[in-house]
Amino acid sequence: MSSSVTGVIHDLERILLSPEEIHTRVQAMAARLNVELAGKVVTVVALMDGALFFVADLLRQLEIPVRMHTLSASSYQGGTATTGEVKVNWPAGVDLRGQDVLLLDDILDTGLTLSVISERILAQQPASLRTCVLLSKRRQRLRDVPLDDAGFEIDDEFVVGYGMDYMGRFRNLPCIGILNPNKPS
Ligand code: IMP
Ligand code: MG
Prior knowledge:
Layout: H1 3-9, E1 12-17, H2 19-36, E2 42-48, H3 52-59, E3 66-74, E4 87-89, E5 100-108, H4 112-122, E6 128-137, E7 149-154, E8 159-160, E9 176-179
Parallel strand pairs: 2-3, 2-5, 5-6, 6-7
Antiparallel strand pairs: 1-9, 3-4, 8-9
The structure holds inosinic acid (IMP) and magnesium ion.
């Protein structure tokens, strides 16, 4: 690992998931989608910025035809707790009517973000909607979200890395970890 990446990892209290563990799990999630969505053309709706790395790794292992839209949604505004209000930047021209939609996000926490986006997708009358996240926190949800697959169930702790940030930082970590509360530098 390069010295600059090692430097950032020093801001972590501990590593929760190594790059290898993430890779193996994402591979298995892709294998399942390849079987379950065989014969379909899939329209991926990917939530930026957090799901960027997950989506890039997962989609490159899909053997089915894929279209992709990216949406920006934010409820954290840089901190470690949801503001309770989800801001969605829905691009003009996204029409999901009759499409087999695969909604992808980095992490399911309160459920607010995915419930707001799923309602918006369902209002467009897709043929089907499947929702997958890389991480699902073990906690009470504020809203129910029908989830088809979650890479890992984790404790209710704030995580960074592999696309996920704290105050805009740490997205580039190849692993997923818990921040050192006395840092970050
Ligand atoms: P929810 O709306 O509370 O379910 O939160 C979902 C969004 O909050 C995710 O898409 C993430 O962008 C962000 N988020 C939730 N938990 C974490 C975390 O532990 N680290 C980084 N981002 C998080
Ligand atoms: Mg997000």
